[in-house]
Design a protein that fits this description.
Length: 912
């Protein structure tokens, strides 16, 4: 079947008023929609309707109300329960056995899916309510026609029902789209992104700055999921993500964004530390009145937030304040200790009050507080009774001590007969829930007869409490005659119909449930008994309730003459008799539906009214005229813009370098006309790196330093007393740049030092410091050192110096913080010790001047000793990569520049 034949057939069906939705066409004209979806390039049913001049807004929709079982022919709205109980099959097993069949009816699917609101609105709004293969193909073709991607990721993210329908068919999304053609299958595959090139140190920092959100960096989880390549480069250049955030100068987000106007709990908790919270709460306490949670919230909401952050709940705060839970909650217990509980139990026992647990919870002498306090202090009520010396009452003792109200079995039987004659309850569960007398009767019947059923039998009653029939005295000689049928009770057929017609005349509703609840249940029951169901009674009364709506107002059923008059009136008014239009009108649909029931079909109704069906429909529904298509105006592309020449590019870049402007492609592309400049560079030089190489610029877009700049930098560094060795120089960005340029310009670093006027060995040895150690006899950990030192001091006649500086090592087991364990004595101490001993110190020279004269070194040594006194860790991993509270990278860099290494700085400060 070709396109023109399909279009002609669609127009013919539309003119006849037949439904044209996909489900109805598949049911009545499967060859038509099959031909429409097999045309290549893919055409589809929606496209066929559009080329026939029909839109989805003009067609009539029809859904089948039932579905048939292929096994036994059962029809119903759903086959799920039928398959499970009748055939022992699951819906999936049934579909595997009969592929292409349905388990749910179209009307049921429409009621469930068609009326449901869309959670996420797709880019193209749906036009069908039930998901089928043909409808999915049409939507995919529409996405492609409107220039939307049809990849798996796009469909899964924007129109998930299409993806789910394809997965239920057992195919992947590209395999499902392959039916429409190879071009659809190719476009449905999600292309893999190209690998992201590695970034340099500066490019990584810039990438982190570009993804900041209101001054905050995303969490590490977000960075791992969305910016994987950036996280890869962060781990390459930094130890961890917080170190990279610190280098960028931004904070990492906490993972949630506070809405506008919301309270920042972190700032409030910092504003109210735990000590301040306790202080404020002590001020709020007045006497025995302790503020509760609602009081704190009314007076200071921020304080309640701080309490929750620091303590979790009010009870933990009261424990921290040293308050008992009872006083904190304002509870005053009657029984504060074990003695008061024991005293109360003994009092109740002496006065004859019940002491069992049930009597304490309910009854006239209940005292639930006593039992609660006993459980609190003793663990159980039995232990509380044992502590008070009172015996635990048992059930046997209760029954044994009880005095029966009905002392003899005859008294029980007489009471049961009296109750039966008076119509009072006699069954066990009725007596159990009755008054005290009823319960006593039940207890006494069980006391004398055992089970209560035996007492009922003794009284001549059945177990259900009814009288037993007396045994016959003789056998009947004649069979009993059958009883005559009972006359029917309730309204008759005529009364039911009259009741319905009366409500129709008054304009009242005819809902069966509402009529029964209003007090007319006899009428509804009689209608069901006589007619089978309420709807049949309405039809017998000539009443029609439109659309089966519950509670709808009843309308009289139009007769044959009413239908013909209605049709003629519509023709005279020039409205027309199209079934598609009638089905959308409230009164017209009622006449249309009744006409089909009365005449058999709508065509027969038109003939009965004296009209020609083809002529009357064509008169009011002419074929739509094809709209002339506007002429296509060819798009004129603007002429391509000429590229910049090589000379202009080189001249511009040299000028930018002289003005110290950014020379990287990403920076220039953001400027005006920068994108065309970058495009010209790549066209003329191949890539940006080739341009920088021709200009003699490094990869970061900076001019290398000249010989004069290198020499000036080295001379200035030596004048400041800083080392020019390569390990210390390359710790900073500028030093690394000078070192790399010096090795390239002069051939080696030693040649660069010679060009600056220094002898390499001499200048490197000047800044290389070696640890100076004292002789063994002055080491503090050696016993001989203490002895010789004490002897030297005693010979000099001076008092021994017991200050903190003289005590080089703390005693064993001391809990004081790190007091700089003296690995070596200071110069002043060593000189005083030698002078006291009468030794000559001139032979040692200046080796004992361990205290540096440089103020920068003195500042660093002081900072190191203060950090050690505070008990903070001095390891490299902690001071450079540890927690923020223990990290101090600036001190580490200063120590490297001044002493050459971290170990040398610690030895100079006397810190282990």
């Amino acid at each position: 079947m070709e396109k023109r034949e399909i279009i002609a057939r669609i127009k013919e069906l539309h003119a006849a008023g037949e439904p044209l939705n996909i489900q109805a066409v598949k049911r009545y004209h499967p060859e038509l929609i099959g031909a429409a979806i097999r045309i290549r390039p893919y055409w589809g049913w929606k496209r066929a309707l559009e080329e026939a001049g029909i839109s989805y807004e003009d067609i009539r929709f029809a859904y089948h109300a039932t579905v048939r079982c292929r096994i036994c022919g059962f029809e119903g709205t759903s086959l799920s329960s039928h398959l499970r109980f009748k055939h022992g099959l699951k819906p999936g097993e049934y579909l595997e056995k009969f592929p292409g069949e349905e388990v749910e009816s179209e009307q049921r699917l429409y009621n469930f899916f068609g009326r449901r609101k869309l959670v996420r609105v797709p880019p193209i709004l749906p036009w069908e309510k039930i998901m089928t293969d043909e409808y999915v193909y049409d939507r995919v073709a529409e996405y492609r026609r409107q220039k939307f991607p049809i990849t798996t990721d796009f469909i899964h993210r924007n129109d998930r029902p299409l993806y789910v329908h394809a997965k239920r068919s057992g195919k992947s999304w590209p395999e499902f789209c392959a039916f429409m053609g190879p071009e659809y299958a190719k476009e449905a595959e999600t292309p893999k992104p190209p690998p992201d090139p590695l970034r340099s140190y500066e490019e990584t920092l810039q990438a982190l700055r570009d993804i900041d959100i209101d001054g905050y960096l995303p969490t590490e989880r977000t960075l791992k999921s969305r910016y994987f390549s950036i996280r890869r480069d962060v781990l390459r250049h930094f130890a961890n993500y917080p170190a990279a955030a610190k280098a960028v100068g931004l904070k990492i987000s906490t993972g949630h964004r506070l809405p506008k106007g919301a309270r920042d709990h972190q700032k409030i908790a910092a504003k109210y530390p735990p000590e301040k919270v306790i202080e404020i709460m002590r001020e709020m306490i007045k006497g025995d009145r302790i503020p509760r949670k609602r009081d704190v919230k009314e007076r200071n909401p921020d304080l309640l937030i701080a309490i929750t952050k620091h303590f979790g709940k009010m009870g933990n705060l009261f424990k921290a304040m040293g308050l008992k839970a009872e006083r904190a909650r304002g509870i005053k217990r009657r029984y504060q200790d074990k003695e008061s509980i024991i005293e109360e139990i003994r009092r109740r026992d002496e006065e004859g009050l019940p002491v069992n647990g049930r009597a304490l919870l309910d009854g006239p002498d209940r005292d639930s507080g006593l039992q609660t306090s006993a459980l609190r202090y003793f663990g159980s009520w039995k232990e509380a009774l044992e502590a008070a010396g009172v015996a635990m009452p048992s059930r046997a003792a209760k029954k044994r001590d009880r005095v029966p109200v009905f002392a003899t079995p005859e008294a029980v039987v007489e009471e049961l007969k009296r109750r039966m004659a008076a119509g009072e309850p006699v069954r066990a569960f009725q007596l159990q829930q009755g008054t005290e007398t009823d319960r006593n009767l039940l207890l006494d019947s069980r006391l004398h007869f055992g089970p209560h059923v035996e007492a009922l039998k003794a009284a001549g009653l059945r177990p259900d409490g009814r009288l037993r029939a007396p045994p016959p005295r003789y056998l009947p000689t004649k069979p009993k005659e059958p009883r005559p049928p009972r006359p029917p009770t309730g309204p008759s057929r005529e009364e039911v119909l009259a009741f319905i017609r009366d409500r129709v005349e008054k304009g009242e509703h005819l809902n069966c449930d509402r009529i029964a609840r209003a007090g007319h249940s006899r009428v509804t029951n009689a209608a069901r008994r006589i007619f089978g169901h309420w709807r049949a009674a309405l039809n017998a009364a000539g009443v029609d309730v439109p659309n089966n709506k519950v509670g709808a107002r009843a309308q009289p059923k139009p007769s044959r003459e009413d239908i013909i008059a209605f049709m003629k009136k519509r023709v005279d008014d020039g409205i027309g008799l199209s079934s598609a239009k009638l089905s959308k009108e409230s009164p017209g649909y009622r006449y249309y539906r009744t006409a089909i029931k009365v005449f058999g079909s709508w065509e027969n109704a038109l003939k009965a009214a004296g009209f020609d069906p083809v002529e009357i429909i064509a008169r009011f529904n002419p074929a739509p005229k094809a709209k002339p298509k506007p002429p296509k105006v060819p798009k004129v592309k603007p002429p391509p813009r000429p590229l910049f020449s090589k000379e202009f590019i080189l001249q511009t870049m040299r000028k930018r370098l002289e003005e110290n402007k950014p020379a990287l492609a990403r920076d220039i592309a953001k400027e005006e006309d920068g994108a065309h400049f970058v495009k010209s560079v790549r066209a003329q030089f191949g890539d940006w790196k080739s341009l920088l190489s021709e200009l003699g610029v490094s990869g970061n877009g900076r001019m290398p330093p000249s010989k004069e700049e290198i020499i000036a930098f080295l001379q200035a560094r030596v004048a400041d007393g800083k080392s020019v060795a390569s390990p210390q120089l390359t710790l900073t960005t500028e030093g690394s740049r000078i070192y790399n340029a010096g090795t390239k310009t002069f051939g080696s670093w030693h040649d660069a030092l010679r060009a600056a006027g220094f002898e390499p060995k001499e200048i490197l040895a000047r800044f290389k410091r070696r640890p100076r150690r004292l002789p063994k006899f002055l080491q503090p950990h050696a016993p001989r050192a203490e002895k010789s030192r004490a002897a030297a001091v005693s010979d000099s006649g001076e008092e021994p110096d017991m200050s903190a500086s003289a005590q080089t090592a703390p005693p064993k087991g001391s809990s004081k913080p790190n007091e700089f364990p003296a690995r070596e004595a200071t110069a002043a101490e060593f000189a005083r010790i030698l002078a006291a001993a009468g030794a000559d110190t001139s032979e040692f020279g200046d080796d004992f001047e361990t205290e540096p004269e440089d103020p920068e070194k003195l500042r660093i040594i002081t900072a190191l000793r203060e950090r050690a006194s505070a008990g903070k860790a001095m390891k490299y991993g902690v001071i450079c990569l540890g927690p923020p509270a223990l990290r101090d990278r600036a001190l580490y860099d200063a120590a490297l520049n001044a002493f050459g290494s971290w170990k040398a700085a610690l030895e100079e400060a006397g810190v282990r």
